[in-house]
Each structure stands twice: as structure tokens, then as C-alpha cells.
Hints:
By secondary structure, the protein is of the alpha/beta class. It folds into two domains: 2-115, Enolase-like, domain 1; 119-329, TIM Barrel (Alpha-Beta Barrel). 36% of the residues lie in helices and 22% in strands. The chain contains twelve helices and 13 strands. An eight-stranded parallel sheet has the order 4-5-6-7-8-9-10-11. Strand 10, helix 12 and strand 11 form a beta-alpha-beta unit. 50% of the residues are buried. The structure holds magnesium ion. Magnesium ion binds at residues 183, 185, 210-211, 235, 255.
Amino acid sequence: xxxxxxxxxxxxKHPFRIAIAARTFTPLVLIEIEKNGWIGRGECSMxxxxxxxxDTAFAFYQLVEKSGILQNVNLNSIDIxxxxxxxxxxxxxxxxxxxxxxxxxxxxxxxxxxxxxWQMLGxxxxxxxxxxxxxxxxxxxxxxxxIGGAANFSAIKVKLGSENDYExxxxxxxxxxxPIYADANQGWKDVHFAIEMCHWLASKGVVLIEQPLPKSDxxxxxxxxxxxxxxxxxxxxxxxxxxxxxxxxxxxGINIKLMKSTGLCEAKQMVDEARKRKMKIxxxxxxxxxxxxxxxxxxxxxxxxxxxxxPWLTVNxxxxxxxxxxxxxxxxxxxxxxxxxxx
Length: 343
Ligand code: MG
């Protein structure tokens, strides 16, 4: 197998502001794994505050090439789980860089075995949840304009954790009655304030809240979870499968992102474990092209909520935009991820 990789800056439609950062593009690395004319595509998306970069991804891929792990793969029976555990053991960290390899291997295996990735994962397209459209922290007039541009979406996700939380929610409620997912991105610092916010947000039609308090404050998050009338999901507090034990009892659910989980293999394990623990599951994304988005969408029918809006928030997606029908991403019957390259 031949691994190739290139840097790609994914430009955002609007500067994106959350409680802890703001940016106008997200650095990606697009990868291809090629064997006998088959090409599997993957990507890693690396918002700067998470600690990975295009350069660290390149360094990791050089390590993968040197290891020979991909050279010895038998095309007739690609064991992605086995390959990914070897890739994961090469060096700690690099979750997004690893995710790109996992995604490309799923795309490749699906094409070779003539199956869509969602079928490989055991997903049922009929139970696909709606996907939310994400609004960064903005002024009321910009928020109104962005909601107007999100007519095809059936749920709104909004970033909170600024001093304008009340105004932001009131603005959204004044123009739409779609369900709202709120994401505080660790932006609230006080347990009592957070619990009050949960009650107020619930009264405004908010159906879930992500990461109310800082990721390491598990005791505080547990109190918010106990006091909240709506589900509280861990995002920053939950990265890899091993974090289940760490966050036990502190949240009602988790936000799984392929860039955190090192891809679909571990994400599928997370879904199965969360179901056992009776936890709610959201599948989310970073700023991603159709490649990462369709990989997430392949697992989305096994989740309660989907936030897979990357292609609609960016301007230079190098693949065809996924099809959105009734607010849901349509899974294609094409083999692999079913994505088509434009650039
Ligand atoms: Mg989040």
C-alpha cells in the first residue's frame, strides 16, 4: 500500500468563534492509501488549540511509512482493527492523524469488498438522526442571517460560554422554533450558574448541553448533570475509549468525534460501550470536508444526535457536498465512503 499526504487549509465561510478561540480556516491533511489502483481517502482536521498540526501529522506519517505496517497488509482481508492498533502503538497522541488512516482504510476496504462504509459498520440508514447546523458566537444580526442560511437543517447547534449567552438564545428563539443543541465549550466556570443556565435553556427549547464546565472539573460537571433537566454531554472531557472510566457518572452522554477517537474503529467501540452504559450519544465533527463528514455519517444512525455540518460551513471542500434530505445526511449506496473528488 502506498500512503500519500498533502496539506490543505479548509477555509471557513465565516470567522468561527467559540468560548476559547476564533479562526478563519482549519489546517487539514488529506491522505490517500493506494493499492492496485484502489484509492482510499482520509483526512485529519486539526483546530490549533488541540495540539496537532500539519507538521506533526506529516512527521507521524513518515513514522508510519518507516514502520512498514501498511506494506504488509493482505488486500483480500484488510483487518482495520488490527492495523489501527499497530498504528496507535507507534506513538502516543496524533489522534487526528491516526483517524485519517482509519477513514482511508474504511474507504479502501469498502471499495474492494463492494460495500458502503455504513454497511460495514452495521448502520441502518432509515434511523439516521437529523444533523444540526452550528452557529459560532456572534452578534444578533449575524446570527439571524446565518439561521436564514440554514433553512435545510432541522436543528441548530449554538456555541455559548460568552457574556452574551442570554441574548444569543433569545435571538435564535425569535427566528426559529427548531430544536437547539447548546455547547458551552467549558465556558461556564461556576456550578450554580451552570445549573441555572440548564433550567433556563431547557425552558427555551434547548434539548441538550455540551461541556458546561472545564474538562478537568469532573466533580463540577457531575453536579451540573445531576441538577440539569436536559442531557449533559461530555466533549472536551471525553477523547478516547479509555476515558469512559474517567467520566463515569459525570455526564449523561458523550460527543464522539472521529478526530478524537482515532477514527471509526474506536468510535464504533465507543458507541457500543455507551449503549451498554445507557448514555446518550452525539456524533460530532471538527471543520471537515465531505470525507470526514461521510465517515461520521456512516456511524450516525447508531447515535442519538448528529452534528456533521462541516461541508456547509466551509468554502473550499474538495469533494462533492453530501446530500441533505429532511435535515438528514443521505447515505450513499456507493462503495466505500462514496465521495467524489472535485479539485
Ligand atoms: Mg463541543
